[in-house]
Design goal:
The chain is globular and about 45 Å long. The protein starts with 23 loop residues before the first helix and ends with a helix. By secondary structure, it is mainly alpha-helical. Strand 1, helix 2 and strand 2 form a beta-alpha-beta unit. The longest helix has 14 residues. Helix 1 packs across helix 2.
Amino acid sequence: MNKIIYIIRHCEATGQAPDASLTEKGKEQAKKLAVFLSGKKVDRIISSPFLRAILTVEPFAEKNNLKIETDSRLKERVLSTVSMPDWMDKLEATYTDFDLKYEGGESSKGSNQENNACSE
């Protein structure tokens, strides 16, 4: 049995906060995504709990009477709680040093609880 998994990044959003909504352009992108997926066999939708992610798949889910399941392991990790103009370089560094974390942020390794949940 072959499975196809579609990994979709959220549509254009008003920000990065967990409750950030989609912009008008993002809402149009979500509608186009629903059209794109309409010809695909989709059995299940699993989304980040962030509002922008849920709103991205909502038009497709509603049209196809599918429930949107959320999984907190799909949340974005926090790089830092302070502004870093060179954030992209800092982010890259966390992929070579999994223990590296910045002020108020999370490492690429995450907590032991998160690692155990992902390895089950």
